[in-house]
């Protein structure tokens, strides 16, 4: 039975080995010509190049993730209303909640897609590095025996790319691995904290979704820290680079397209006002405020004019006035 599942898993991973090794070997040809084919610098830069290619390919999913996360934040008041209304009936609550997700175009699982799709890639890179160190003659994808030997033996800052924190007694290797584990953990924490502190409305900071985000804020870094000590140095470079990309990408989105009613939205409005003031023009929000103020003033003037208009007299009142 285990052999059967192993065969299925190998068949699923085989295309990934070809795709990842093709990108890795392509970058290695470029950087190998500059730093030497067996150079650790060339292989580390190739891993970073692979990471950037993967993250660029995942940009459409990241956009969906941002939209879904924003929708989840904005519908939290409605979710709380449903919980108050149907709290006694779990089945009805689940039905109404799913209907709300559907009507608002929100997929609660979309925020997990980028990290879920990266896991097979992460596993494939882990297996390529591990296999290169243990048995270079076992070729996977486009990694030949010669490339496996170079990859497994490549040294960067005194550490082999295939070394882990646990499988070495070299203090220098452990320091580098520990630094990368801490960098991976810190970037995971800061990315999640950036989202919660700057791009979540005040009314979305309570309720089940907020609790889930707070849990992820502390649980994910711990998971990566515990698992990271078993990751090869090359994999740690991949994951840290991926986290840095996520931080930069998220910072750009929050700064330029923040969710309404968040601290980031207020900061953007202040920047837009300052920029418009320097150019001597008005922002879209200022023009909208003036339009609404003008409409309100027009309604007040219309009501005032209606109150001041003389009351129309009846025919009997006019006849009585003439007799006088």
UniProtKB/TrEMBL annotation:
Transmembrane segments: 7-28, 40-63, 171-190, 215-239
Topology in membrane: Multi-pass membrane protein
GO cellular component: plasma membrane
Occurrences of domain Membrane insertase YidC/Oxa/ALB C-terminal (ranges): 43-254
Annotated spans, Disordered: 262-324
Keyword Transmembrane: yes
Keyword Transmembrane helix: yes
Major site of localization recorded for this protein: membrane
Keywords, comma-separated and alphabetical: Cell membrane, Chaperone, Membrane, Protein transport, Transmembrane, Transmembrane helix, Transport
Protein name as annotated: Putative membrane insertase
Source species of the chain: metagenome
